[in-house]
## 1
Amino acid sequence: AAKEAGRSTWRRFVPSMQARVESRFELEGELRKALDLQQLRLYLQPKTNREGQVYGTESLVRWEHPEKGLIPPDRFIPLAEDTGMILPLGEWVLKETLQLMTEYPQLSFAVNISPRQFRNPDFVARIKTLIQETGANPQRLTLEVTEGLLITDFNQSSRRMLELQQLGISFSIDDFGTGYSSLSYLKKLPINELKIDRSFVKDLPEDSSDALLVETMMAVAKHLQLSVVAEGVETQAQRDYLYSVDCNLHQGYFYGKPEPARQLLERLKP
Ligand code: C2E
Ligand code: MG
Ligand code: MG
Ligand code: MG
């Protein structure tokens, strides 16, 4: 019976695995063309302050596939990272964002930078060129990086961050709390902001261990004079709890989902 069960599991397993490999392979080829075919779309999600005002946005890329529809970044960013496609893709996101920055001078803009993009030796030079070409003000640009990037190559990362900081660029630690890293790096690096990962916000205010973690992160941030953004705020109860612990900068569906860049920006025009 065990053998029987094993065999039927195997039979079901193989085709689905094959489909996954095929679709990844297929997607990889198509992703190479997506840029040229202008299939990438820049979406923005608002960041809101305690007064309820949108003070900034985060750039979130989507891929508008002709047959598969709108593909979320979780399905192609890792692929782009593995294949090196992240370099032209990340450059596209930066350029699009910097171009918008000049038209909407009242807002700050955040862009996600993947490890391979950040480690590319040309990264600082590329950013400088893009700033010059677009005329964007780097004081209103924040780069979101993850904890993993900072730990694996601390010396190189910190040098690079300092160079970018000298241009006026700010840094935010994305998905903060998921990286199991030492807190000492926060003090040593030019970081301005922590983004509390959605997983800690999801079950607030009921989950007391998440509440404790959020309060601890707030204490760390206060001590190091960092601002804090809570990700994934979906309910009024979450918002109120976060306000009660003095976490006043929020991003999440409660305030607005990511939407096509122009659509959001036009609505925000003063
Ligand atoms: P992230 O940078 O942590 O972005 C936040 C993600 O949480 C976004 O997913 C956003 O749509 C989602 N989100 C925001 N508020 C809520 C909420 O209230 N509830 C729920 N359930 N989700 C919420 P998205 O747009 O699918 O992006 C996923 C990840 O893909 C991003 O996570 C980021 O790591 C990566 N990514 C997106 N765009 C880029 C890009 O241009 N470059 C790079 N390197 N990575 C990107
Ligand atoms: Mg982010
Ligand atoms: Mg995040
Ligand atoms: Mg996240």
Note: The CA atoms of residues 119 and 244 lie 39 Å apart.
## 2
Amino acid sequence: MTVLAIVGATGAVGSTMIDIIDARETVPWSEIRLVASARSAGKVLRVRGEDVTVRLLEPEVFDGVDIALFDVPDAVSAEWAPVAAARGAVAVDNSGAFRMDSEVPLVVPEVNADEAANRPKGIIANPNCTTLSMMAAMGALHREFGLTALVVASYQAASGAGQPGIDRLQAELSAVSGQDVGRRAGDVAEAISAAGLPAESPFPAPLALNVVPWAGSLKDDGWSSEELKVRNESRKILGIPDLKVSATCVRVPVITTHALAVHATFAGEVSVDAAHKVLGAQPTIVLRDDPAAGQWPTPADAVGGDPTVVGRVRQALDFPNTLELFVCGDNLRKGAALNTYEIAETVAATL
Ligand code: 2RA
């Protein structure tokens, strides 16, 4: 009798979590409890063919729960994951609240599943979706070739900003659709404003017909929080505390699936063939790498699926021991709900 709770069940990631659970042939749960704030408590959602009423987030809701998944903002996780843990649940948290806590493992099952067992606070963290999108590939390549440095540029989808991000991009796309815009500075913003969209947006600039070199909040020396997460979380997950990492995070007008251009340096020279063998043998990766046949990863190929799609693998011409590659991962699935759920499955197998 293993009881699973999903906190934040009605959000963009929570809904994806329910889709993932519905698609599993079997699940180890005797009960799936849906939990949300007062705004959503009382709603009825279908889970594996049954109506489940969403319960209010309060301490008692965790009684009898074995594993509690949190898909909520940082502040909510910071307050409530310890409450769930204190009531006996293993909390698996998809927020940023605990990722860099030295007493909280940061887990990607195909890279460092063993670490899920070492959880002194009863909390396991799920990485940020941008870091996660490249971890299956980087973990596999690091195991074989020894990673020493990563230089990354992200192309992040609007749904990284949750349902408000999706809604905003769709509204902006409607506002510019059929308009003769994109020829003069400011004309996209004018079209968006003329369509009556509020100036306030999850994005700091128009996203339709644009790319925005910003995700997250401002940190020291001009870095964004998102860029620092890529650096810190990659080091922690891969277990390389001194890994050299530099990231530039960019938002693009894609609804779902983050893409990353990765410049990965290893301890020695790595041929494309050797990299293909390693990537092709990783069950959670689909290799799509035949430029002559027009085969490369795009968000449109990866969205809605579980695997990370990897391609454009090249030996860097002017950088010894370095491979260039392009990876695409659904940020709501492997980047969030799927990895969180896989952690829960990993823990459930040990209970
Ligand atoms: C984003 N990675 O894409 C963030 C969400 N966790 O905005």
Note: The chain has a mean pLDDT of 96.
## 3
Amino acid sequence: MLEIKNLHVKLEEEDKQILKGVDLTVKAGEVHAIMGPNGSGKSTLSYVLAGREGYEVTEGSATLEGEELLEMEPEERAASGLFLAFQYPVEIPGVGNMTFLRTAVNAQRKARGEEEMSAGDFLKVVREKAKKLKIDAEMLKRPVNVGFSGGEKKRNEILQMAMLEPKMCILDETDSGLDVDAMKLVSDGVNALRDEGRAFLVITHYQRLLDHIKPDVVHIMAAGRIIKTGGPELALEVEHNGYADILAEVQ
Ligand code: ADP
Ligand code: MG
Ligand code: MG
């Protein structure tokens, strides 16, 4: 599904190398977690995959089902099935949540050469998915994320993910200060969308989140590289011993 090879990234503005050779392969149906000390480049990795400005790829590749992501515009990445949920969802005053979702869904369908969803069909689907996620109809009418509580924003993010039916979902939860309820929302959302045709990359430093999500593979990132890969037990090791032992091991 997602194959990252020898990815090197520097800041555009400064001569600062942030990613120094990231290798990562995520197969369809799998859930991978990335953990790692603050400043190791976890968020940068997700920003680069999303196509955010300000970063320069100096070496390496990242493909989604064999297609080079790094050469695509951000919208093309979304259309090809990439979804990124970020720590701080943007507020869009004046744009109703429902309108936003419908525009996003139809833009994606258009980019895939599919027909637009009719207003009636869309309404049916969005209501059904919202209900499953315990999102009330009122929230669908309000402007996107404006005045939403932290929990509502999380819920909305999961709803966006459910509506777009992406193939590769990347969630960066690193510094969001997820409380227990929000953690449950995210993990329930991910678990509900787990599917053999879909993969997840969950970036977190909360081992507790991984108690609920149960990743297939756990990676530890430090200083711009993935330094260790293992099963869920690796997250527990970090929980008990911190990163020091792992860092010492690879030096
Ligand atoms: P993590 O998510 O693992 O905490 P980040 O990807 O946020 O790490 O950051 C990696 C490193 O790159 C840090 O040293 C951070 O300060 C630096 N960095 C990332 N983006 C920028 C930026 N736009 N300007 C300056 N430094 C940045
Ligand atoms: Mg950080
Ligand atoms: Mg981060």
Note: The mean pLDDT is 89.
